[in-house]
Amino acid sequence: MMSGLVLKLNPKERVLVNGAVIENGDRRSRLSILTPNANILRLRDAIRPDEVNTPVRRVCYIAQLVLSGDVAEEDAKLQILRGIEQLSQALRDDDSRIHLDAATEAAGQNDFYRALKALRGLLPREARLLAGHG
Questions:
Q1: Around Cβ 75, how many Cβ atoms within 10 Å?
Q2: 19 has pLDDT over 90
Q3: Torsion sign, CA atoms 87, 90, 96, 102
Q4: Structural domain boundaries of the chain?
Q5: CA-to-CA dists, residue 33 to 8, 18, 73, 107, 133, angstroms
Q6: CA atoms of 7 and 24, how far apart (whole Å)
Q7: What is the β-pairing status of strands 40-42 and 20-23?
Q8: Which of helix, strand or coil describes residue 133?
């Protein structure tokens, strides 16, 4: 039994799978991605280049570039791991540490979808910190 990734898609939602844009039909659906380490990016989660304006977003964006096929995995992996290392200096609470550890493990296994998902979990905390609300 393969433990593939299951994507739940809303009507008309778009997802990038190994460089191909796929659009869901008129109703909600579930897709099972059976290929291990397929590069998958939900386009609604995608960060646009002009939005790359915080440390967490920068690392997310690098993971996203791997998933969109714009950067080689090995080049990105080093940048992501270095970025996570820098983030871990600033984000020292337990919750952030869980996300950072998950992202490190995923990136180490070239699972950039899971790495991105873990890193995205840090965005709300970063926003609170940047707004001065700890």
A1: 12
A2: no
A3: positive
A4: 5-43, 47-130
A5: 11, 11, 19, 19, 39
A6: 11
A7: unpaired
A8: coil
